[in-house]
Amino acid sequence: GVKELIEKTFFKIETIDEQKDLxxxxxxxxxxxxxxxxxxxxxxxxxxxxxxxxxxxxxxxxNIELLKRIKISEKIEEILLLRLKGLNSEEIHLLKILSLVKxxxxxxxxxxxxxYTANVNLEVLKSLGFIRxxxxxxxxxxxxxxxxxSMVIEQKIKDEGHRAIIKEIxxxxxxxxxxxTAFYPILADLY
Length: 191
What we know:
By secondary structure, the chain is of the alpha+beta class. It has helices at residues 2-10, 22-33, 37-49, 64-69, 74-85, 89-101, 107-113, 122-127, 147-156, 159-176, 184-190, and strands spanning 13-15, 53-56, 59-62, 105-106, 131-136, 139-144. The strands form 2 sheets. The protein has a 3-stranded mixed β-sheet with strand order 1-3-2. A 3-stranded antiparallel β-sheet has the order 4-6-5.
């Protein structure tokens, strides 16, 4: 995954503080990129430009303390906003739902949210890096691909829109997952 990509790209990378573990950075990078190569490259470029990641004495160095204080580049947010403009209103609506729920939704829940005439293409959203697909117990689940996407989408939702979307998704989750106890905490958070 992300660790292999970093090792293949940088050959060797280490923290400037030997007490800090590189696995924290790998987790941070994965959470912010969703493992999407495009976002990984953009984030690493941003870290390099901000001096968090630099090359010294034949080794890439990472300043973990500085990493904790930086904000992700607005350039990535701008790219995402441009990509979002290419989606239809139903696809953006689904991204808002997934962003607010913050939990993978089973495909049947998504299907029940929209009529068969709805123009929501999960494969397109997946190929654009907006959502990721997981399989569990023979079922397909979809979630927002990473925190940056979620943050950008949530900024687009007004407070009143936030509540309306939550009111819309609660009955669909209750109807489709009434026997799935994993959804109880999610429903509690949504209420």
